[in-house]
Amino acid sequence: METLESELTCPICLELFEDPLLLPCAHSLCFNCAHRILVSHCSTSKPLESISAFQCPTCRYVITLNHRGLEGLKRNVTLQNIIDRFQKASLSGPNSPTESRRLQPQRPYTATISGTIAGTIGGGGGTSGGSARGSPATSSHSHSHANHANHTNHANHTNHTNANHSPAVVAKMDPRISCQFCEQDPPREAVKTCVTCEVSYCDRCLRATHPNKKPFTSHRLVEPVPDTHIRGLTCLEHENEKVNMYCLVDDQLICALCKLVGRHREHQVSSLTERFDKLKAYQVSPGRVSDAVMEASKTSAAQTLENNLTNLVKRNSELENQMAKLIQICQQVEVNTAMHEAKLVEECDELVEIIRQRKQVIAVKIKESKVMKLRKLAQQIANCRQCLERSSALITQAEQSLKENDHARFLQTARNVAERVAMATASSQVLIPDVNLNEAFDNFALDFSREKKILEGLDYLTAPNPPSIRDELCTASHDTITVHWTSEDEFSVTSYELQYTIYTGQTNFISLYNSADSWMIVPNIKQNHYTVHGLQSGTRYIFFVKAINQAGSRNSEPARLKTNSQPFKLDPKTAHKKLRLSNDCLTMEKDESSLKKSHTPERFSGTGSYGAAGNVFIDSGCHYWEVLLGASTWYAIGVAYKSAPKNEWSGKNSSSWVFSRCNNNFMVRHDGKEMLVEASLQLRRLGVLLDYDNNSLSFYDAMNSQHIHTFEISFLLPVVPTFMIWNKSVMILSGLPVPDFVDGVASDLQEQQQQQMGLCRQESPYLTGMKTCH
């Protein structure tokens, strides 16, 4: 049946032929599909009636039309009859391959691909197709409703033939579907839905529009379903065209016109059913099919879709977590905002209360000053009034004396009056008070400009900006580091907090910072610098500085600082009896004269073992020292365990590692094996880098900033610097910071040295048979 169905399928719409035309090339084509081909060639300057030819979509044969157009082509009546019988057979056998495929859940997807045939929807057979297109069933629907809807919703048609409805379809079915053809208001309830017409009808309208004769006998009637269930997706490029194919090249849904005349013309396509089956195959329950079938059904596209779905689910989970955190932060913002608003009201109310109280106090002071000043002024006014009255009486008496015409009387009273006037004039100068302008309150002022500026500057306090550690200002010794930093908000910072820990090489500072157990904390620092004591020598540390005020705190960027190397001197107790050490124990010189030195287990004592060791044992950190070689041409410089033999050369045993020069030959030696290395004959300053934590011992030409050799050592015990000479003298410089060129060379050669030492360990640590100095 499936093979027969493929032979009855239109090459354009990929559905069973509907009103097929017999082309001159012997191929067949749906009438509506042929009509659509002609429509696709139409334009404003080229109407449909003027198109006289088109190509067969199967063989590209040019079909020439006469004046009747498509009506001039013969109908393939035989093919239409075969299709009708095929459809009846498929309907009568629900377990047939075709019907079984149509009953699968992909039908809701195939509902989105209908509509590739424009024009009539009657689908009439024989030669009566023209009259069928004018039937009442098609008067209210045009162009986009065609035979594809038959296949689209054929799963719904099983409501007639099979009681086992699809749960998804049943769940979505409207309990009451109205007739879409009724003219009365409200319309009657629909009893059937025609998936061919894509219309729901009541019983009266169904009898009127679907008489029991062709072409309506081929229409598929199902139980009423919503309109959205029978209309499919439309093409994005061709309006009102329903998608019915899947482009495998562009991975998208397309319509028949896209394949026929669009940009997908040369692309490989598949039917929606086939593509749907492939993408859904991996979801089939393993309990229903065999493992072999399951593996065969999992195409690459299905796997890709499954992976994408997994990633999408994971991404959704991350987004949900992120959203939950954001919601939590929003809630915290609400809580903190309410708290700060309440605090703002409280603080402002306190300020207002302080102003109110100060207003009352100042007002009382003003009133008291007013009373005091007015009392003083009233007293002065009373005194002035009293003086004025006495003066007025004296003036009156003097004026009467001046009017006296009797000489005797005038002379008798004039002298007395004159004396009184003179006394009154003299006393008036004393009694008249001086007017004090301060008593007028003119020198009193209310100036709150400073307070107003302070109030205008009221604002909420924020956490200070992160401080910045100034690496160029920081200093270090072998056991101390002085950290300097700067802050843009120095005046708003109440204190600083310094945190530090040993740097373990971890690049994720956030994770390192969160491991709070390993951090040392120095709180309540008031200055912009602090010296940390008691640190390990030759060790890198991570420092953070936290600026703190009442609003919160912020951390600086991390800074990596390192203590200097461990300083040491030569230990006289270990020096060979034929070596002479300087008073400061920094220089050793070969002296052939036999000196009386007591024998101790630590002393180099073997014949020719003219050596001395440092006075420290190193078990951690990175340390650098230099040896001034002077004119010596025979020496061995390196490190050794405490257990290394003292009666033989350093490097002759498994407990010591040295760089040696014997006249013009330079070599490295360990466990009695030697390897020549390249070095300048003018080597006068040897740099030694002991990185105990990273298991390496390196030698450098310090004058020329050149790397000579690196030992990769798995240290098991503490080591001590060792020095041997057979002529002249050497001087040591210890406690030095690691030079920049050493850090750069160590970084560049680390991988190379590891590979080289790995090969050496696989074969032989050193080349044997080299020349040995004796």
UniProtKB/TrEMBL annotation:
Coiled coil: 302-336
Annotated RING-type domain residues: 10-60
A Pfam family matched in the record: zf-RING_UBOX
Gene Ontology molecular function: microtubule binding; transferase activity; zinc ion binding
Alphabetized InterPro entries for the sequence: B30.2/SPRY, B30.2/SPRY_sf, Bbox_C, Butyrophylin_SPRY, ConA-like_dom_sf, COS_domain, E3_ligase_FN3/SPRY, FN3_dom
Chain positions covered by the region annotation Disordered: 89-108, 114-163
Compositional bias segments (type: Gly residues): 120-132
COS domain location: 402-461
Protein name, entry field: Midline 2
UniProt source species: Acanthochromis polyacanthus (spiny chromis)
